[in-house]
């Protein structure tokens, strides 16, 4: 299960440490934190090592190769230094992956945005298919996809489904939710991405455990149905 943090710095580190045993990837939006610095970066890496989870900065890179490479390696966030993977749009073409891969360590990866969970998204079927084709051309760098369905038949691709919430409904800004069972059994998610369902909960750790159990139970049900 992945978890999105978009809260204040203190609670971010506190929650990362509290929930670390229950997640496989921490999905961050560090540009929402006002005082992110090198000390913050090292602290987050230490927490990830302690609990054995990976860090994915949800940067959604979407520019020409040279610009993206500079955004990735420099600036106030120096994303390349502290992440295990980043997200990117396929819209600019394969140059964006070439640029990111050139600047990455061998163990780092990219996750492509193939589909989105917002109402009215422009990620059409042909766009998604082109995104998957682009991923196939970078087998050593593209880990998988953020998506709403099983977009690739390649068993090496990881499918991460966002917009997962136990009380599935939506919000006033176009977000559309599905519950963990639907994400795993109907949409083929390998990993569920949970944000407000945990972060906005009165007891985040208890909420994380509920999501973890719901997703795992759904996974077991797919095995029994085969």
UniProtKB/TrEMBL annotation:
Q: In which pathway does it act?
A: Pyrimidine metabolism; UMP biosynthesis via de novo pathway; UMP from orotate: step 2/2
| Annotated Orotidine 5'-phosphate decarboxylase domain residues | 3-211
Query: Which PROSITE patterns does the UniProt entry name for this protein?
Result: OMPDECASE
Q: What is its EC number?
A: 4.1.1.23
InterPro entries, per this entry?
Aldolase_TIM, OMPdecase, OMPdecase_AS, OMPdeCOase_dom, RibuloseP-bd_barrel
Q: Which UniProt keywords apply?
A: Decarboxylase, Lyase, Pyrimidine biosynthesis
Name the catalysed reactions.
Answer: orotidine 5'-phosphate + H(+) = UMP + CO2
Which residues are listed for substrate binding in this entry?
Answer: 27, 117, 165, 175, 195-196
Which GO molecular function entries does the Swiss-Prot or TrEMBL record give?
orotate phosphoribosyltransferase activity; orotidine-5'-phosphate decarboxylase activity
The similarity annotation says:
Belongs to the OMP decarboxylase family.
Q: Name one GO biological process term.
A: 'de novo' UMP biosynthetic process
Q: What is this protein called?
A: Orotidine 5'-phosphate decarboxylase
* Active-site residues from the entry: 58 (for ompdecase activity), 60 (for ompdecase activity), 63 (for ompdecase activity)
